[in-house]
Design brief:
Shape: globular
Strand order of the largest sheet: 1-2
Number of strands: 2
Order of helices and strands: HHHHEE
Helix content: 40-55%
Low-confidence stretches: none
């Protein structure tokens, strides 16, 4: 448990802060990847968050998910997953 003084200063262990940030990124992608959130995929704020949270850099290196795809060297788009038969 944190002491009252540490809570008053707003101190947090760096590992806790990093874990909270990781959890926010995971939760964000989990939410926008659900079918009910499909309209959010084309929202500019979602695109900005995906870039800010590092998803786009990761995808460019490791491969794109079904919901997003590259558009040239510096852009990308997200939308409904393409259905292949």
């Amino acid at each position: 448990m944190w002491s009252a003084a540490a809570r008053a200063r707003g101190s947090r262990a760096p590992c806790l802060v990093a874990e909270q940030a990781r959890a926010r990124r995971y939760d964000f992608y989990f939410l926008v990847a659900t079918p009910v959130a499909e309209p959010l995929l084309t929202d500019a704020r979602t695109k900005d968050a995906l870039m800010r949270y590092g998803f786009v850099a990761y995808w460019r290196e490791k491969g794109w998910p079904a919901l997003c795809r590259p558009k040239g060297a510096d852009d990308f788009e997200c939308g409904p997953a393409s259905k292949t038969h």
